[in-house]
Design a protein that fits this description.
By secondary structure, the chain is α/β, with parallel strands linked by helices. Helix content is about 35%, strand content about 25%. The structure holds adenosine-5'-triphosphate. This is ABC transporter ATP-binding protein.
Length: about 260
Amino acid sequence: MKIELLDVTKEFPVRDSGTPFTALSGVSLSVASGEFLTLVGPSGCGKSTLLDLLTGLATPTRGEIRLDGVPVTGPGLDRGIVFQQYALFPWRTALANVEFGLEAKAVPRRERRELAGHYLDLVGLTGFAERYPHELSGGMRQRVAIARSLAYDPAVLLMDEPFAALDAQTRESLQEELLRIWQATGKTVVFITHGIDEAVYLGQRVAVMTPAPGRIREVVEVSFDSREGDLRGTARFGEYRHAIWSLLREEAVPVA
Ligand SMILES: Nc1ncnc2c1ncn2[C@@H]1O[C@H](COP(=O)(O)OP(=O)(O)OP(=O)(O)O)[C@@H](O)[C@H]1O
């Protein structure tokens, strides 16, 4: 297993209260090496909290997170992160932004340039290397952010609603591109979204979360014979969408 969450609970202290707030409760989940897992759940169910724990920026109150069998104790270059609004350095060109992670790894200058150029090509930004972030569209900036996380070759890609701020068309083309990159690179991907369609389209498995305290409600396996053509319009896609919608809806309606 690449990633293992073992009975993970995350509590936050509440001001003026002796009782903490439980954001995640007893979450256990495994992600295989090379798997693409999407995580879907209602707003506030603890998705970002879970991702923060995987990045190592936060630590669980109870339970353990393991990467390749080793407990996660902090951030590391073995995990690349892409957020909804990725803060590119405005004073650096697209190429120099992608080079950033490689500097941290002390890759020699010439090699850095070549690698950064390669990853810009991979995300479809050939010819935009010398543009500054303000000269790029939102979708292009997000491509730079993805290229930047890919460039230092992390085994795991952690993505927190990376396409949420984009228009539908750009989102779909980036989803396709991400799948292509994932297939080409074999990385393990954990992708957070609150879009059911996005979760079904991208994930080999979709983990459905419950509202606070966040738990894993169910993990749905998704498989398509082919992703060619209008996958979202197929009956099979509709079945998965409905199954996940029902799981989320069951959670939203309080049981008497
Ligand atoms: N640092 C913090 N201190 C206190 N409470 C927090 C903190 N971070 C998150 N929370 C709470 O934990 C819960 C889960 O938040 P989180 O951001 O993980 O949800 P989410 O599922 O990512 O939501 P969204 O889809 O709206 O982004 C929320 O109720 C939030 O208020």
